[in-house]
Amino acid sequence: MNSKSIDFSARNTDVDVDPLFVQRWSPRAFQAHVIEPAVMHRIMEAARWSPSCFNAQPWRLYTSTDASFDDFLSLLVEGNQGWAKDVSVIGFMVAERNFEHNGKPNSYHAFDAGAAWMSLTLQARMEGLYTHGMGGIKKDEVASYLKLDTEQSEVLMGFTIGKLADLDSLSDEQKANETPNDRKELSEIWQQI
Hints:
Residues 23-64, 80-163 form the Nitroreductase domain. This protein is an alpha+beta fold.
């Protein structure tokens, strides 16, 4: 299955935006696929070039290898483990709470990490891959596994990267929610005052 066979018609836009944005989607149907190291490097490099307050670049990306995949999988909540077992890569995004240059709190650390997440996601789509961000992770266990100082570092999210599979690989319950959805109308999120 590829993006051309997915019905994105529910994603209505009458504005001429690049299809990359409209076809960004967080599926749960993934197939076993080895991501070439050069492709992973480009995806992470895209995240590296994201904007951040004071150019602090507070995000830290931790991704699984073949050797650590099962450990990373176990750090997801049970509901996510069921479908994530078939992805190519599981990762965690962590953000540094304080600025390196002065040690003061960086109240924009999560916002800046979100910019890096979107850059990572869009580059993955340009590589023909999909991502799925997850709040359903065991944050304390992730912090422990990664040996993080939680006073300094905050585990923000988990994510997967992989190649889309046929929806028949999912359970009936998962299939029911496995459709690209629409967004709020632009007028609901944007006001010119």
